[in-house]
Amino acid sequence: MEIGAIIHPLLYVDSGAVIINKPPNLVCQLGEEGQSQNNRGSDHGDFKSLLTDIQETLGLKEFPYPLHRLDKLTTGTLAVALNRQTARDISQQLQARTLDKTYLAIVRGGGRSFTERSGVISNYLICDAEGTVSVTKNSEWPKTRSQKDRPKWLSKSETHWELVNSSPSLPLSLMKLTLRTGLKHQLRVHMAQTLQAPILGDRRYASAKISKKITEIVNIPQDTLFLHASSLSFNRYFPKQTRIKVVAPLPGYFTKLCAKIGIQIPIEYTRIGVWKDDVEVKNVIQDFLNQQSSQASPIVDTAAEPTAELT
């Protein structure tokens, strides 16, 4: 087996799960009968093709199970289960908030824009009938006259943020964001509406256009959002509980912009990394594929906590 058989790069693989380094412009959602809801003609193919590549390369009997989503323009770590048992196990970790997700973002605001270097955003978000999310002071459902105006959801949200570095010449900063709840557009809304520092490239939630001071120096393409799912941490069982952490390197356009505007990026954000119980391991994917090539039997997940079957 060759890693190149999978078009989209793998960051981590074991007997029950893979972590993918998602490219931009890929919609991570399957519609009816497993059809991808990605735009046709994308240079990155569609989501169903990605999952099919994984199934064929790893010789799986089951079609892989998507576990969560990333917005179309967001890049980085995306978890996929290879069987029903692992799908249930990791889904339970998502619900229990024991799976940690960390993001990196370039936001519109210099170092002086923030009175603190870190903090916690905790408030309620509401999603209207059109799918737009906003901060609300009310924890109760608003009264509406018609069903079509009824919000889709209202929920408590929490994001931990840390200012990593700022540009010395432009009002732009690198922010580390950790999700404690995983609501639609949560990070984008928290940055734009709570910190008043929208993510660069976010034209939906930013209340003002990018300043000329920025656009005169850098060109921000229409379909680029500087938001990257940097790492995932979750539990697996080999057979004892093992904490896995997977890091996806920042995409090239992200690091090039930081270099141009003088934002220093910590080295750990620029390379692939896999840790088991805080010990870094190398060649995880190739070692796994070599092991599978030497075995005639199909992949059986021995790294998931025993659970009941999905119904």
TrEMBL record:
Gene3D superfamilies: Pseudouridine synthase. It comes from the Eukaryota. One of its GO terms (molecular function) is pseudouridine synthase activity. Residues 18-193 form the Pseudouridine synthase RsuA/RluA-like domain. GO terms for biological process: enzyme-directed rRNA pseudouridine synthesis. PANTHER family: MITOCHONDRIAL RNA PSEUDOURIDINE SYNTHASE, RNA PSEUDOURIDYLATE SYNTHASE DOMAIN-CONTAINING PROTEIN 1. Belongs to the pseudouridine synthase RluA family. This is Pseudouridine synthase RsuA/RluA-like domain-containing protein. It comes from Cerrena zonata.
